[in-house]
């Protein structure tokens, strides 16, 4: 299994960063690749339980992912499972994501730890996706 870790520093407090990565209102502003919107979702990482999102690109292609929020520890971390759905809505292999927030001298740091991704190609695709989403998060918190 392949794991992926990404870090990004922000000049906001840990509490503000945690809000941005856990609340529905903020998640909808940065969730998914650039150029995607989220027409269907139950994104709420403030409490444990199920979640899902459908991301749609400009051509109308839809990408559904779902999981369970496994832990919430404000303002330090949120963990959740992740599995893509296929065209018949069957869930694929499950991986696990942890968003960790720590204070820095200039504000706070977000670490995304995505584990059990299967292989290098899947990891590379997720790295591109998370990197694109992080650019949107940068814009939100700028």
Automatic annotation (TrEMBL):
SUPFAM superfamilies: Bet v1-like (SSF55961). Residues 12-141 form the Activator of Hsp90 ATPase homologue 1/2-like C-terminal domain. Pfam families: AHSA1. It comes from the Bacteria. Gene3D superfamilies: 3.30.530.20. Belongs to the AHA1 family. This is Uncharacterized conserved protein YndB, AHSA1/START domain.
């Amino acid at each position: 299994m392949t794991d992926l870790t990404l870090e990004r520093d922000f000049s906001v407090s840990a509490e503000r960063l945690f809000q941005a990565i856990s609340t529905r209102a903020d998640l909808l502003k940065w969730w998914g690749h650039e150029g995607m919107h989220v027409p269907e979702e139950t994104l709420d990482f403030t409490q444990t339980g199920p979640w899902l999102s459908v991301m749609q690109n400009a051509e109308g292609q839809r990408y559904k992912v779902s999981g369970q929020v496994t832990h919430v520890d404000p303002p330090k971390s949120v963990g959740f499972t992740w599995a893509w759905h296929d065209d018949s809505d069957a869930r694929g292999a499950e991986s696990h994501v942890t968003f960790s927030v720590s204070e820095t001298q200039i504000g706070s740091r977000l670490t995304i730890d995505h584990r059990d991704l299967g292989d290098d190609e899947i990891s590379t695709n997720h790295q591109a996706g998370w990197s694109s989403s992080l650019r949107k998060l940068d814009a939100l918190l700028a």
